[in-house]
Amino acid sequence: MSVAEKPEKKSGGLGETVSVIVQALILALVIRTFLFQPFSIPSGSMRPTLLEGDYLFVTKWAYGYSHYSLPFSLPLFSGRIWAGEPERGDVVVFKFPPNPSVDYIKRVVGLPGDRIQMKDGQLFINGVGVPRVKVGQIDNPDITEVDRPVDVYRETLPNGDSYDTLDLTPNSIGDNTQEFHVPPGHYFMMGDNRDNSSDSRFSVGFVPAENLVGRANILFFSIAGGASPLEIWKWPTDLRVSRLLHFVN
C-alpha cells in the first residue's frame, strides 16, 4: 500500500516578500531604538577627534532611555529609564536644548554640581586647572579646516581621560568665560575645536540628562570633501582609510 505524498507548499510570492521586508524593518527599528544608531558629523566643532564626513555608531543603552530614544521622539514618558551617568570625557550625542529636533555631538567636561570655567584657554573644573600640554601642530586643512599650522594641546581630565584639542585662535571669545555652576540633572558640553564650537559656553547651555541620546563609540566610515558614502567613484581620492573602524576617544 502506498502512501500519497502531500503536495509541497510553494515558497515565494508577494506575500512572503512583504513579510520578510516588514520583519527586517521591525528588526532595524529595534536595533536603532535600543542598541545602535548611526550618526554623521555635520560640522567641525569636534576636530581633531571627529571630522566632517565621519560616520559613527552611537550606543543607545549607555545612559538608559528617554523619550528622545524613541522614533520621532514620541513624548510617551518623561525622565530616563535604566538611567546611567555619563563620565567626564565621554563623547555624547544629545538633543540641542533650545531645539530638540537638532542633534549635537560634544564632549562631557562638567557633571552635575561642577563649577566650570575657561581661563586663558585652560579648562578649570571646581577651581582646579585641567592639565593642558602642547603636543605639536597639525598642518593639514582636512583636519583643521584652515590653511596654516594649528597648535594641538593634550588635555587630561581628573578621571585620567585625555584627548587632543585645537587652538585655532589665541585669546578667542571662548578662552575666558564666567564660572558656570552645573545644575542637578544637567551636563556641561564642549567641543574639542575650542575656538570653533557652539557648546555649553554659548548657545547650548546646560544639557538636561533627558536630552542625552547615546555615547559615540565606533567610527566606522569617513570620507572627505563633502562626498556621500554612496558616491563610490570618489572613494579612491576621498576615503579616509586610516580613520575606518576606530573607537572614539
Automatic annotation (TrEMBL):
It catalyses: Cleavage of hydrophobic, N-terminal signal or leader sequences from secreted and periplasmic proteins. It is a single-pass type II membrane protein. It holds the Pfam family Peptidase_S26. Gene3D superfamilies: Umud Fragment, subunit A (2.10.109.10). It is found in: Membrane. Keywords: Hydrolase, Membrane, Protease, Transmembrane, Transmembrane helix. Its EC number is 3.4.21.89. InterPro entries: LexA/Signal_pep-like_sf (IPR036286), Pept_S26A_signal_pept_1 (IPR000223), Pept_S26A_signal_pept_1_CS (IPR019758), Pept_S26A_signal_pept_1_Lys-AS (IPR019757), Peptidase_S26 (IPR019533). Residues 16-220 form the Peptidase S26 domain. The active site is at 45, 106. GO terms for cellular component: membrane. Its main location: membrane. GO terms for biological process: signal peptide processing. The chain crosses the membrane at residues 20-39. GO terms for molecular function: serine-type endopeptidase activity; signal peptidase activity. Belongs to the peptidase S26 family. This is Signal peptidase I. The lineage of its organism: Bacteria, Pseudomonadati, Pseudomonadota, Alphaproteobacteria, Hyphomicrobiales.
